[in-house]
Amino acid sequence: MPSCLDQQSYSSGRRTVVLLTPRGFCAGVVRAIDAVRIALKVFGPPVYVRREIVHNRFVVESLRAAGAVFVDEIDAIADGERVIFSAHGVAPAVRQQAEERGMKVIDATCPLVTKVHLEAARFARMGFTILLIGHRDHDEVIGTLGVAPENTIIVETLEDAGKVQVPDPARVCYLTQTTLSLDETAGIIARLRERFPAIQGPAAHDICYATQNRQEAVKAAAQGCDLLLVVGSKNSSNSKRLVEVARRLGLKAYLVDCAAEVDPAWLEGKIRVAVTAGASAPENLVEDLVRHLRDLGFERMEELRLKQEDVRFTLPPELVEISNCS
User: If you average pLDDT over residues 40-49, what whole number do you get?
Assistant: First the structure.
């Protein structure tokens, strides 16, 4: 594994930006944003989107300027209109409502979130109680809860894991939000296993590859840097987890939407500043931040490359044929 530690830059006192890789857009985010852009190109505005297509303020503002109309619920859309479901997924009740109202649906749900929905449906059919590890106010968790609401209990914390009660300890399983902290989630799962030895889980863990890779890169940087700046919006779960991972390792870390949010006081006395971005943050915001740091005296640049990501997802089926013809 590459190391962030460079004694030469410390001994020379040269202020350095350490750019973490991988960072920024994941395959599910690229797919969702492409879905909106292609829909706008093919059908023209307005194209309605339920909730934020991804949790990034700048992405949403850019798509809004191009003609996307973001709504909290499809009640705000007229019958028969075209609507895109966000990358975070929706409850089956929302799909049913859209179908009953004759809406033309483009489903941009991340395939990794769809995987969790399918797992929830399978466990529910078997009569299991589903312990859903995640943040109850997050769009993804709201959608997953809606798959089997009568079977599902949300577990947010280690304390919740120690108190939750289930009707039949022999028929219980756990699923997780895809954008959680690996370490924190592992502790919650371990506690659930202690209390419910028969508990089942998904065949492969639900936390997505991009979330895991970005957290591992932060861990690799923690021992050799003085500060971490994470580019991402305040409602981005995976971005906030990157800050938490760093802070648990003793590395000062801040979440910023853009370069303008950097407080110069954070940089006082710092020699090596690591920079990364959440999975819904565009690369141009990272580039702006790096230029801003250069203007503030961080003239040296390094890259900490953990691995190369090559995951690609196909477009929503409603757009595949259209895209191939364009």
Answer: 96
Q: Which CATH architecture has domain 112-195?
A: 3-Layer(aba) Sandwich (3.40)
Alpha helices in 175-208 (DSSP H): 182-195
Q: What is the CATH number of domain 7-26+210-305?
A: 3.40.1010.20
Question: Which of these is catalytic: 100, 140, 244, 283?
Answer: 140
The pLDDT tens digits of the residues spanning 90-129 come to 999 999 999 999 999 999 999 999 999 999 999 999 999 9
**Number of CB atoms found within 10 A of residue 117's CB:** 21
Given phi > 0 = left and psi -120 to 50 = alpha, else beta, which region is 154? beta
Active site residue 140: yes
- Cite the residue boundaries of each domain of the chain with CATH code 3.40.1010.20: 7-26+210-305, 112-195
Amino acid code (one letter) for 322: I
Q: Residue 304 is which amino acid?
A: L
Residues 273, 225 contacting (CB under 8 angstroms): yes
